[in-house]
Amino acid sequence: MSMECAQLPLAGITVVDLTRVLSGPYCTMMLADMGARVIKIENPDGGDDSRQVGPFVDGESAYFASINRNKESIALDLKDAGDRQVLERMLATADVLVENFRAGVMEKLGFTWEDLHARYPRLVYASISGFGQTGPYRARPAYDMVVQAMGGLMSVTGEAGGNPARVGVSIGDIGAGLYATIGIQSALLKRVQTGLGERVDISMLDCQVALLENPIARYSATGGVPQPLGTRHPSITPFDMFATQDGFIVIAVGNDALFGKLCDALGRSEWAQEDRFATVPARNEHHVALKACLESRLADATTAEWEAILEAAGVPHGPMNTVPQLVSNPHVRARGMILEIGIGDGKALQVAGNPVKFGSTEALSGVRNPPSLDQDRDRLLAEFGG
Amino acid sequence: MSMECAQLPLAGITVVDLTRVLSGPYCTMMLADMGARVIKIENPDGGDDSRQVGPFVDGESAYFASINRNKESIALDLKDAGDRQVLERMLATADVLVENFRAGVMEKLGFTWEDLHARYPRLVYASISGFGQTGPYRARPAYDMVVQAMGGLMSVTGEAGGNPARVGVSIGDIGAGLYATIGIQSALLKRVQTGLGERVDISMLDCQVALLENPIARYSATGGVPQPLGTRHPSITPFDMFATQDGFIVIAVGNDALFGKLCDALGRSEWAQEDRFATVPARNEHHVALKACLESRLADATTAEWEAILEAAGVPHGPMNTVPQLVSNPHVRARGMILEIGIGDGKALQVAGNPVKFGSTEALSGVRNPPSLDQDRDRLLAEFGG
Known about the structure:
Chains A, B: It is an enzyme of class 2 (transferase). Two copies of one chain form a homodimer. Chain A is of the alpha/beta class.
């Protein structure tokens, strides 16, 4: 493998990162994991808010550590003239500026798109905010929980007939971080053609709407209000979690041929011949009866026994893993999805790896630890201090 | 605005799309929404499986329509010599090939990365599969439900103390589609430097691990097994849904200053002075008591009344919207997040828009309807038929 091929794809891209907490830092972690240089600008008064969010290891935030690897840190006061000059010198050579202040804050600080674009025409300027740079709610603050609720995701998550539930991860923030990464990369690709940077405007609420694509289309098609369904798929059956003799197994059968294989594997081939189970629409209509049939048979063996039988039969299935089971899973380990980074007094913290795998680059084995606040000050001032 | 600036960022990029159902089509919808030309190759025997998934409008699948706008369609039999020649001629000029067959299927069809890379060195070759192209589970089939369960997301979603719940959208598929989009764009950016295409290998399970970043770090830091928490945030309090006089409101307070503003807005400034509520760790420890305090006061007014009070106070909050409330929300409408496309016998279907907004391009007003199976055959054969 040549050195060139082994280089990470975003090598050579420099990102000036004004983001805090989660949505922005998740975006810039993705960019850093793929080879971009990310210079994290933190406020001198404690830095990124998430440094104060637990749990802590020897006083260091695991929340912060999980999403800030591979970044440099410098503390700058964006209201101080000297510090602003340092930032400006960074922007003069950077490819991307990312910020996730509330809409309007960058303008108050004097960093408008119009002005920065005039001075640094190649700079991509990406903003992530709760509601975007336009629209009636643009000045409102937001957090993950707010956009999960306003965006409808909570209204379709949880037990059937029960209370709405929050998704157990901050998909309001992480979703915005992913769409922001896509927007930034699109703008960089466009710049190859035009030579000009672009304004990217990501609204966390917009991103929730985008994730709701199927409930929105279902509502529009039928007029029915999408509800929480527990573990069942809204329009494909059987696509659910089922009790076995000793636990739970998910079975995901998306077409009639697979349903036949499932019935054969269970020793109940006759079910596939019944009119009420013969097609996807029929199985959707009779999902309660079908679940009862399936669980009556699944109770005869353990999850591990059914896993072996369904694997041999080629029927999509899987156990429900807890986080400890996930972290120790041999496939997850083989894919390099659990990284260890240093935290606190020489301890190791396990964090999720980068799922964007490239055939010609090795797993990111040389991961750099999350920065302490202002750790790269001297080197960065030597480079950008004027 | 010049014509050049108004062009969508991926204009000029051609994607040959072998994907079916959701993860791959979501990825290629993103690429198409941002201006790429997407040629959807469907099997002649009914096309994309999701054309058979309900609900239907005049016999057309709303599931399919929701994620296949802006694409062209041609039916090709990948085992037929003539049809394979058409595909090869497309690949000779395309920038990206995307497929989401089970790992190994493309190799059986004779389309290996090594071979295609040798013949079309600039082609980016992206695969989305349940478990990736490497690792012990690589040959297993998977669906959204399977990776949500195996990936730990179900184990942290649902009511506190209750059963695990599936996220109410197919985040196993959509997550993979988003990371695949990021991988493809990274590879296109690298190609600008190297002139060579890249192999992108996306595993749906890997993507779930990536979304679990916070539960994994919390488990590693504390040893505690992350559990479903209903609507509460795991490490920030108050960050939850609360009952009001007539419904629910989400309040999301991430730091002590905001907590002070919340207490002032509720007319209960003294709460912020109590030791048990003074810091994030203290509020986390006493979250049950704090929720009781807050709901005792929130019961005095309606959700709408509290919204007005909290908005004036600058405290992040929001109502819990159902899908109908979301679709009719004035801010969501103002952001162009609800598109109408044609379906069936001249009917309109509302679908989610693209959340990646660019400052210099208008909202994608000229959205093209999802294709009927093979609708672009004649034109595509004229272009690629040899």
